[in-house]
Write a structure and sequence with these properties.
Bound molecules: guanine
Structural class: alpha/beta
CATH architecture of the largest domain: 3-Layer(aba) Sandwich
CATH superfamily of the largest domain: NAD(P)-binding Rossmann-like Domain
Strand content: 15-25%
Length: 284
């Protein structure tokens, strides 16, 4: 039976360390979060980011813009935040409404304030192995992995999902850690076979319980990035969160597994705060 990796506890520890660093170095980091429209999930994420910032001693401002915001209006806000000395991190919550070109907005964020690590400059630096803001969810996955397995070199890692936010950057980080990396996606043949070979399995597909327990290699480390809201069969009318992995089936075979909720999710926020503090230190 797998040991469950307690992401909530590890995230709390990191936030405590950041709070200590902020007060010891007398920093005043500032994070601006921009939310366009009224996506329910984004609303929850943005609220959690704001609360976690305040608790850690980071000045947080949330900019809520209507769903009909134009690209030029959003670019103007980004330019204003780029120039604002109080602000060390800018996060534009994705997804954006269809009239806005998300790539153009991300590219307009000053790379030195791009605490999401999504801008072309930071992604380029990541793939070159140069110092950069490491995207938060992939960074969180690596911290969780290293927590239970410090020796990653030579391990076979399978990343399921090729998004710019998780799949591609986490594959870069695993490669930098000397893993043998495979990226699987919707067109992959024999996904079950790929899974059975993986010492490390990162699931970032966005489909509830898509990875079946019997696909998991005995003794593998499973990191479940999925956050899927489904109807709760036990409580009619209620919903609950599940990951991309069939937790029960996978836990019967894996050595370590992250839960949903309480695994990768809290780590994403902790890493956002970490990047913001790093940015404030650099600005000083
Ligand atoms: N939407 C889902 N995850 C993220 C994230 O990490 N950053 C931003 N900006 N938007 C997201």
């Amino acid at each position: 039976m797998a040991e469950v990796i307690d992401g909530a506890a590890i995230a709390k520890r990191i936030r405590g360390e950041l709070a200590h660093l902020i007060s010891a170095k007398k920093l005043q980091p500032g994070l601006a979060v921009v939310l366009v429209g009224d996506n329910q999930a984004s609303e929850v994420y943005v609220r959690n980011k704001g609360r976690a910032s305040e608790e850690t001693g980071i000045l947080s401002e949330t900019h809520r813009l209507p769903a009909a915001t134009t690209q030029d209006e959003l670019l103007a806000l980004v330019a204003q935040l780029n120039a604002d000395k109080k602000i060390h991190g800018i996060l534009v919550q994705l997804p954006l409404p269809p009239q806005i070109d998300a790539q153009a907005i991300i590219a307009a964020i000053d790379p030195d304030k791009d605490v999401d690590g999504f801008s072309p400059v930071n992604i380029g630096r990541l793939s070159l192995g140069l110092p950069c803001f490491v995207p938060c969810t992939p960074q969180g996955c690596m911290i969780l992995l290293r927590e239970v397995e410090p020796h990653l070199a030579g391990k076979r890692a399978l990343v399921i999902g090729r998004s710019n936010i998780v799949g591609k950057p986490v594959a870069q980080l695993l490669l930098a850690a000397n893993c043998t990396v495979t990226i699987a996606h919707s067109r992959t043949r024999d996904l079950a076979d790929e899974c059975r070979r993986a010492d490390i399995l990162i699931a970032a597909i966005g489909k509830p319980a898509f990875v079946r327990g019997e696909w998991v290699k005995e003794g593998a480390i499973v990191v479940d990035v999925g956050i899927n809201r489904i109807a709760d069969p036990a409580l009619p009318g209620k919903t609950r969160l599940v990951g991309d992995v069939d937790f029960k089936g996978a836990a019967a075979r894996a050595a370590f597994i992250t839960p949903v909720p309480g695994g990768v999710g809290p780590m994403t926020i902790a890493c956002l705060l970490k990047n913001t503090v790093q940015s404030a230190e650099k600005a000083r």
